[in-house]
Design goal:
homodimer, 254 residues, alpha+beta, DNA-binding, 4-stranded antiparallel sheet
DNA sequence: CGCTGCCTTGATCTTCTTCAAAACGTGTGG
DNA sequence: CCACACGTTTTGAAGAAGATCAAGGCAGCG
């Protein structure tokens, strides 16, 4: 992929520690789909129950199988959810930006994490203990119903991934994943910087491979193809989508 | 797979129409994880809100994309949840027996089915309108929390499937699926009938293929291998697991 | 300036799909 | 009760997609 002579265009990387202000906490929590129905007082009270944790890039937030410490909400930075296999392979289930959440959604005590979480960039993560969250759910039925919708949406997304893995070749899965990332953590670039939508995450080939169920080599080959078509630009640990509609046509040949 | 000269050992097939009695309705509804916390009066009231529908084998309960008619609970028979792809391929997400449920779990109106449902055997399915179920959820917070747990469990299972599809070869995925089915709809057989655990569903090779993301031919080849090892027995539209631990070793080489 | 990782690319090999044909079972109608 | 016809299953052979192994190139960093 050697035609580009540019350096990392990502706007991250410099910070080695992220911390979030009280103002940010309230903004992030208030923006959660399941806290939207809370009034200001209730939100402030919920905020009390959360504590915040700072992570350096690459730091582990929680490990698969460990007892659930609560519900975690990303306030600053990016976090990836990973599952490991016996054979040493990894499966990357999701990349979360600010407002993304994971962990004990149901508030039931005694659960265990079914996936590991790792900070990709410097990150600040808010957390609330299972019991406390369960209390909020019990006190505010509308909140519980909202969580239901969120979980339903996640389940839908998971089933869609299953469909992709079962029925589509790597090329199409990779196109889908790039579109999904461009949509969730993408950032439009000015024409002076090449235009397109930059995926604002340090994204190694191995990460893309783990998201699509393939190998870094195959991912690299296909990205090279895409780049040759002018559909994307990419380099060491970054990718930008230049022609989303072309990728869409490839991903879902309606 | 021609060494066996036996006929279908399945205990189904004869009935062309299934209907469930009032007694069965209450038993099935009362057994649902999210109705367990309801007292008898509340349960009877919830029961009022449900109506029942009978389906012949192969009948379609709902189609992907159609507006959600409510929450559906299988009372009698077996139902499969299927997703279709543009290329005409099918993905079989789940096989539900009595007590299994699908559709609008969150009770939010305006949803659409994300998967189709089809009766595999003659079946009776109970259904409740979204608004009515939402009312129950709102009135009984404990019920909503229980639904949360159920959805969380489903999400876990979906992620596990994603892991399997991404990281394991067909052989291991097939072993996993057989074990899962044996566990969910299996029935121990007396030694006189060959022993093992019979999967009590008319299970075509294509169904197994759609569950593991492969083709009927490949599924057949691998089943033949398994049979040659003495791990399973199988025939036209049926399979019995003879050596679960061997399959487990294959599925998860710890 | 050289080191360390990440990325790319090539060659080979395995796995799985595809196409094709034969064998089998199951239910049907004689 | 038997024979036939249909859909399912099995099996084979060829081909494609992707994994694996291996080597070289490029970016960022001390």
């Amino acid at each position: 992929m050697g035609t580009q002579r540019r350096h990392t265009p990502l706007a991250v990387e410099t910070v080695h520690r992220a911390h979030c202000t009280v103002h940010e906490r309230l903004r992030v929590l208030g923006g959660l789909p399941f806290f939207r129905s809370l009034d200001e007082a209730a939100l402030a009270q919920a905020n009390q129950a959360f504590h915040s944790e700072d992570y350096a890039p690459g730091a582990v937030v929680c490990d698969e199988g460990e007892p659930v410490r609560g519900l975690h909400v990303v306030a600053v930075g990016k976090v990836k959810l990973v599952r490991h296999t016996a054979g040493g392979q990894d499966v990357l289930l999701e990349i979360l930006g600010p407002g993304g959440f994971f962990g004990g959604l149901s508030g039931t005590p005694g659960e265990r994490y079914t996936e590991g979480a790792e900070a990709i960039t410097a990150a600040c993560v808010l957390a609330v203990a299972p019991a406390a969250f369960r209390e909020v759910l019990r006190a505010h039925p509308a909140t519980a119903l909202a969580v239901l919708d969120v979980l339903g949406e996640r389940l839908r997304a998971a089933n869609e991934t299953i469909r992709q893995l079962s029925a589509h070749p790597v090329e199409q899965r990779l196109a889908s994943v790039l579109l999904k990332l461009a949509h969730s953590v993408g950032e439009a670039q000015p024409a002076a910087r090449g235009g397109g939508v930059l995926i604002q995450v340090p994204l190694a080939r191995k990460d893309l491979a783990d998201m699509t169920g393939t190998t870094p080599e195959t991912a690299s080959r296909i990205l090279s193809q895409f780049q040759a078509q002018g559909w994307i630009r990419g380099g060491r640990r970054w990718v930008a989508v230049q022609d989303a509609s072309a990728l869409e046509r490839l991903a879902e040949p309606a």
